[in-house]
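STRUCTURE:
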């Protein structure tokens, strides 16, 4: 029971610290503030985490674990093109979420994060997002609308397009959040671009003009 309480306490610290780091930034967040909102002593936090840097890295690792859960692919039920759009729409929503944005920005804004930890974060982010779309891409290859030899390249193009539109434009360039209709359009564009770039047969791009695809 004591171990369970300790685990729940650490979980609470990580959640509270994550909220404060996101709201005020690493530098402006004090451990005493985290302790006060967590309703525990500052000494208890330092007992669990050696320093604020250690706590910050733990918050990022905790965020990666939450992202892995959110990025788990759902069972494929419809036609492959529809399933690919669902995956793209889910992918974009995650890219637009506060969790994902914070994980992306953290290594850029806080140079004290060890390079090994940064590399691990990048690998985990890519792996989590890849597992979301890869089943749908493989289904498209099996269904004859995508070159089966180019599935990995198709994912790279897909992710580059969605991440650019969602993160770099939506987060850093445009101050106004995109509307849900525009999010569906981006997912639709991503599907069209990928299937046109890597058709199942050279020179025979799949025509999506007559296909009605519903996002998740």
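SEQUENCE:
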């Amino acid at each position: 029971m004591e171990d369970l309480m300790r685990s729940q306490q650490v979980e609470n610290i990580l959640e509270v610290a994550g909220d404060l780091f996101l709201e005020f930034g690493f530098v402006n967040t004090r451990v005493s503030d985290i302790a006060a909102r967590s309703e525990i002593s500052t000494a208890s936090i330092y007992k669990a985490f050696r320093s604020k840097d250690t706590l910050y890295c733990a918050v990022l690792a905790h965020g990666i674990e939450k992202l892995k859960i959110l990025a788990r692919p759902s069972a494929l039920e419809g036609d492959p093109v529809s399933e690919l759009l669902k995956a793209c729409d889910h992918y974009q929503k995650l890219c637009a979420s506060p969790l994902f944005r914070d994980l992306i920005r953290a290594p850029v804004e806080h140079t004290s994060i060890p390079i090994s930890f940064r590399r691990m974060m990048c690998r985990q982010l890519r792996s989590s997002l890849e597992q979301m779309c890869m089943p749908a891409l493989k289904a498209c290859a099996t269904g004859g609308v995508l070159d089966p030899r180019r599935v990995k390249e198709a994912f790279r193009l897909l992710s580059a397009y969605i991440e650019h539109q969602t993160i770099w434009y939506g987060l850093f360039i445009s101050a106004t959040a995109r509307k849900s209709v525009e999010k569906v359009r981006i997912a639709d564009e991503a599907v069209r671009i990928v299937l046109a770039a890597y058709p199942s047969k050279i020179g025979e791009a799949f025509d999506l003009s007559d296909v009605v695809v519903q996002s998740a």
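REMARK: Residues 74-197 form a domain with the Tetracycline Repressor; domain 2 fold (CATH 1.10.357).
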